[in-house]
Amino acid sequence: MKYVDEFRDPELAKATLAEIKRITTRHWVMMEICGGQTHSIKRFGLDQLLPEEIELVHGPGCPVCVTPLEQIDKALAIASRPDVIFTSYGDMLRVPGSGRDLFSIRAQGGDVRVVYSPLDSLKIARDNPDKQIVFFAIGFETTAPANAMAIAQAKNIGLTNFSVLVSHVRVPPAMHAILGSSANRVQGFLAAGHVCAVMGYWEYPEVAEKYKVPIVVTGFEPVDLLQGILKTTQMLEAGDYSAENAYTRAVTFEGNKPAQEIIARVFKECDRKWRGIGTIPMSGWCLSDEYTEFDAESRFDVSAIAPDESPLCIAGQILQGLKKPPQCSAFGTLCTPENPLGATMVSSEGACAAYYRYDSIDLPQGD
Ligand code: SF4
């Protein structure tokens, strides 16, 4: 398959690995931002093949994992209402709230439907005028354009029975939060290629310069990841603290301008809480003033919900690169994909799920 097979070429991967080994002179800690990259790294065993001086830690770029518990609990409360059809991407249905998940709401008779596009929710709204249709609009810069388009379309056609529970987050403020922490270990970033396909990487040079870390836009196939790691290592070894693009077949510096424009029209920047991490200033998108009529939180008045997180879950530390999944005392014992305590064990992009799936022979080490 063009644009995939050549980036899984074993000979190219071996040559890139050899070059990483050749130039590495000391220990470096790099963070891959995206959970999809974490899964590729574990799936292809790249972390085992790298020289031991290169340590990969796993970033917060898993939208399901960082959606705050109170937003999940609000989704559960809204989805429980008999007048509501609740629509969501499939990943969210098994994410535990304070004791239940959307699957259990559906098992109890709630009308919870998986959609593959927010536009599917608009069709459901048109087909069910006597019901309120709520779409769970979560995710990073990647899903924001389609979600924004659906909201704009709802306004254009005058839909009054459609609303969105918004929990959008942005990558650059998370980078600032990680790098600005006194506990930070990250010395270089592999930026998420699909996020940059939308947003470009014009926001990153300032981050790289401020914190003295190289940032390399990186794809998702094994050779993509190794090339991103090689570029980051070259820059670290040379003391080059800038932003570079190792995913040129999909990403430009400016990004997708029409997509950025629809985001800017429908959303505005706001403070956002990240599950396990806490509130990061101006790290999210909320509905802009022109579109507040589509805000499910005010339509259903779910502001008083108080969440109850498992005290065992250290997902917040994992998502900041401070710990790895086997260091959680519940990993593989109290917390498994079948009985998850945290979202990082559920999501197809979650770091705990990646370690459980691909490193299942590892025994939990505890704290
Ligand atoms: S193993 Fe489970 S409880 Fe531990 S950090 Fe991961 S999701 Fe949380």
Q: Would you identify the regions where 5 or more consecutive residues have pLDDT less than 50?
A: 361-367
The sequence of SSEs as H and E is HEHHEHHEHEHEHEHEHHEHEHEEHHH
The helical percent reads: 25-40%
Largest sheet data: 6 strands, mixed
Number of strands: 11
Query: What is the averaged pLDDT score?
Result: 93
Structural class: alpha/beta
Bound heterogens, unique: iron/sulfur cluster
- The helix count comes to 16
Beta-sheet strand percentage? Answer: 15-25%
Shape label: globular
How big is the Rg?
Answer: 21 Å
Give the spatial strand order of the biggest sheet.
Answer: 4-3-5-6-11-10
Q: Can you describe what's shown?
A:
The chain is an alpha/beta fold and 367 residues long. 38% of the residues lie in helices and 19% in strands. The chain has 16 helices and eleven strands. The chain has helices at 10-23, 35-43, 46-49, 63-66, 69-79, 102-107, 118-127, 144-156, 171-180, 193-199, 204-211, 222-238, 257-266, 296-300, 315-319, 351-358; strands at 28-34, 54-61, 84-88, 111-114, 132-139, 162-169, 188-192, 215-218, 243-245, 267-274, 278-287. It has a six-stranded mixed β-sheet, with helices on both faces. A five-stranded parallel β-sheet has the order 2-1-7-8-9. Helix 2 (35-43) packs parallel to helix 16 (351-358) and helix 7 (118-127) packs parallel to helix 8 (144-156). The chain is globular, with a radius of gyration of 21 Å. Mean pLDDT is 93; it is low at 361-367. The structure holds iron/sulfur cluster. Iron/sulfur cluster is lined by residues 312-315, 318, 325, 328, 330-331, 335, 340-342, 344-345, 352.
